[in-house]
Each structure stands twice: as structure tokens, then as C-alpha cells.
Write a sequence for this structure.
């Protein structure tokens, strides 16, 4: 009879440990993913000033502005060229725009990742139930995740 209880307890502990290992794996994976996202964001932000200066340099360096207008340029592009030539659009504007874009991209990826992992986070398990009244139990061990009580 004790062998049956020992086997049940052994199986329950095994399942509980497997669940803890899966939760730890999920938590570590999320932490690693967050580090990768932050690293990519820092890499993009590092190049924003250089890209801004380069774009502004190309646009402000157009010597024959009227010849550029005659090519296939849309109204929006023409507006940008006009603003650059009149010094209404500066490097700081390009830097701010690129920074906002990187931040928005980072937020969208974060939301997408949360939606993908939301379903995998919740898992219900049932270890077992002992219905005999003459059994004695140990003091329950509690934490935020579960409560474990052993047969004595």
C-alpha cells in the first residue's frame, strides 16, 4: 500500500518539477528575447545621427534643385526638398523622425511577441486528490504558483 502512495507521490513530484522546468525555460527565453530586442534597438539608435546627417547632406547638396524637380518627384518629395533648401528641415528633424520610427517599430514587435506567447503562458495541471479521511498530511508548502502537501 505504501508503494502505491510512494509511486503516486513520485509521479506528482516529477510532474511538478517538469512544470517548474518548463516555466523556468519560458522565463529565461523571454528574458533572452528582451535582451535581443534591446540590443537591436540600441544598434539602430546608434546609427540614427549618421543616417540623419547623410540624408540631410544629400538633400541639401543638390546643386541643381530645379533640375531635380523636373525628374519623377512626387509632391511630397518636392515639399521635403523645398523645406531642406529653405533650412526649414534640419538634421535634428531627421533624427527625431528616425528615433520615433525605431521606437514605434520596437513597440509593434513587442506587442506581436506578447500576443504570440500569451497562449503558451497558462497551463493547468491536476496532480491528484486523496479522499480517504484517515490520512495525515504534512504542513503545506506555499508559494505564488502552487501549494504542495505530502502524505505522512
Amino acid at each position: 500500500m505504501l508503494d502505491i502512495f510512494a509511486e503516486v507521490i513520485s509521479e506528482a513530484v516529477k510532474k511538478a518539477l517538469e512544470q517548474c522546468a518548463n516555466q523556468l525555460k519560458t522565463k529565461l527565453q523571454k528574458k533572452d528575447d528582451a535582451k535581443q530586442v534591446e540590443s537591436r534597438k540600441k544598434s539602430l539608435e546608434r546609427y540614427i545621427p549618421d543616417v540623419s546627417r547623410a540624408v540631410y547632406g544629400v538633400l541639401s547638396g543638390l546643386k541643381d534643385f530645379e533640375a531635380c524637380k523636373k525628374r519623377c518627384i512626387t509632391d511630397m518629395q518636392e515639399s521635403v526638398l523645398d523645406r531642406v533648401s529653405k533650412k526649414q528641415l534640419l538634421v535634428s528633424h531627421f533624427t527625431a523622425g528616425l528615433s520615433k520610427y525605431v521606437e514605434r517599430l520596437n513597440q509593434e514587435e513587442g506587442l506581436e511577441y506578447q500576443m504570440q506567447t500569451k497562449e503558451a503562458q497558462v497551463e493547468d495541471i491536476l496532480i491528484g486528490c486523496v479522499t480517504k479521511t484517515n490520512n495525515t498530511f504534512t504542513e503545506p508548502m506555499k508559494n505564488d504558483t502552487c501549494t504542495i502537501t505530502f502524505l505522512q
Remarks:
- The first strand starts at residue 141 and ends at 142.
- The radius of gyration is 31 Å.
- The chain has a mean pLDDT of 76.
